[in-house]
């Protein structure tokens, strides 16, 4: 295997593995190949020699670089042991809303005692959620207490608020899920934490497919959040939540005018899109949950340019049993005659079989079915090259597998990634 020093010659042969010396002196096996990222088992894959300029600077991205170290999960595993001990004492949950509700249900199922909800919203004071009393943090003596921070968008602010209390022991959502070996989206949270360390060449290769520096900084931070169970890291790269799916670097008015929404819920994303870009020329909304679908119908049915489908997107025509546990309306906020726990089926269809008109923006948030839905839209993606905004936090391998799916259809896409929360959710891959 040939070696290219950090300041050496950059002439390399396609398909041949060589050794690249990083600025730290460490050598890394690299291969110039158009193969899928899934093939990055024994070397980092680059899709062109120009990627070497970034790869040579891998030491500038400390969390991605640490994937090459055998001990990169040591801190997470030590924290896991410590948090498990704390959970045996029971805990308070700060955040009496969707994230808190989800974590309290998990705690109850895992035998972890919940001492109460905490929330800064005084209108919630004295109410109960999941049978647990909600109180303002000023009402309690929280010295030496164990408190789980249950907020997607305010986690770091809550941490700063509580961290002034003497002896308080704070646990973030990632630490809690890892300590319980809990399920996460379409997989298990331990897999989500450990996959980058067990498949370093795939994740580093995915990092090298990113085409802008901000995306590389976000990716590096996300790897740190996963392998170190950190939420504090998010503060340096998090984008405003109202930009989710619509980052101005990737999405413009011409894209938004013809919009496909997979996982449309009650149409809230379309509302945000039109607030930002104005009325759509055409929108296709896919929502399999009956209560959310009917809520969307109330708002959009009179508009001829908005088509609503009570179905999901898939690679082929399919039918699956609806699982209420995946409902986005976890707090039962929608007023609907259709019960959220109704036994029903989700019909899946390929986008190519339903949509014939031009597509400018294709958003996907469908609980781990994103890869299958992309394959079911191959013809539209190949024909129109829409901007694709796809959630990348449901499966442990989303960061590289979704890149493989899209680039297998059109290798001329550029790739970006953004984070919109303090936790390992609301992560969007952009293809533009």
UniProtKB/TrEMBL annotation:
| Highest rank taxon of the organism | Bacteria
Stretches assigned to the Methyltransferase FkbM domain: 345-408
| Alphabetized InterPro entries for the sequence | FkbM_mtfrase (IPR006342), SAM-dependent_MTases_sf (IPR029063)
Name of this chain's protein: Methyltransferase FkbM domain-containing protein
Q: Which species does this protein come from?
A: Stutzerimonas kirkiae
């Amino acid at each position: 295997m040939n070696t290219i020093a950090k300041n050496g010659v950059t002439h390399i042969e396609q398909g041949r593995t060589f050794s690249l010396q990083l600025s730290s002196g460490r050598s890394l096996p690299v291969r110039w190949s158009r193969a899928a990222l899934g093939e990055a088992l024994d070397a980092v894959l680059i899709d062109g020699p120009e990627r070497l300029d970034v790869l040579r600077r891998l030491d500038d991205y400390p969390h991605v670089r640490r994937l090459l170290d055998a001990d990169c999960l040591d801190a997470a595993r030590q924290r896991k042991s410590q948090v498990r001990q704390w959970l045996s004492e029971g805990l308070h949950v700060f955040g009496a809303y969707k994230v808190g509700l989800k974590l309290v249900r998990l705690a109850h199922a895992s035998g972890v005692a919940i001492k109460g909800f905490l929330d800064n919203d005084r209108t919630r004071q004295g109410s109960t959620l999941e049978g647990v009393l909600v109180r303002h943090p000023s009402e309690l003596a929280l010295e030496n207490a164990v408190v789980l921070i249950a907020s997607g968008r305010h986690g770091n602010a809550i941490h700063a608020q509580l961290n002034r209390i003497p002896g308080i022991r704070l646990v973030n959502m990632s630490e809690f899920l890892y300590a319980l070996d809990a399920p996460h989206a379409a997989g298990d949270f331990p897999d989500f934490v450990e996959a980058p360390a067990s498949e370093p060449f795939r994740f580093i290769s995915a990092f090298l497919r990113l085409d802008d520096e901000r995306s590389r900084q976000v990716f590096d931070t996300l790897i740190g959040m996963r392998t170190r169970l950190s939420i504090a890291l998010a503060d340096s790269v998090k984008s405003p939540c109202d930009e989710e799916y619509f980052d101005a670097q990737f999405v413009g008015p011409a894209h938004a005018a013809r919009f496909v929404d997979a996982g449309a819920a009650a149409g809230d994303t379309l509302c945000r899109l039109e607030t930002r870009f104005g009325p759509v020329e055409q929108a296709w909304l896919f929502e399999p949950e009956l209560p959310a679908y009917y809520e969307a119908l109330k708002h959009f049915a009179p508009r001829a340019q908005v088509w609503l489908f009570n179905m999901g997107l898939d690679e082929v025509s399919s039918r699956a049993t609806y699982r209420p546990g995946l409902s986005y309306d976890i707090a039962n906020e929608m007023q609907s005659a259709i019960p959220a726990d109704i036994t029903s089926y989700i019909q899946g269809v390929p986008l190519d079989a339903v949509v014939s008109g031009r597509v400018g923006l294709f958003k996907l948030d469908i609980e781990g079915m994103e890869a299958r839905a992309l394959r079911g839209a191959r013809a539209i993606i190949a024909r129109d090259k829409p901007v694709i905004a796809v959630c990348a936090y449901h499966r442990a391998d989303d960061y590289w597998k979704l890149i493989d799916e899209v680039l297998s259809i059109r290798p001329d896409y550029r790739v970006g990634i953004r984070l919109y929360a303090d936790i390992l959710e609301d992560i969007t891959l952009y293809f533009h």
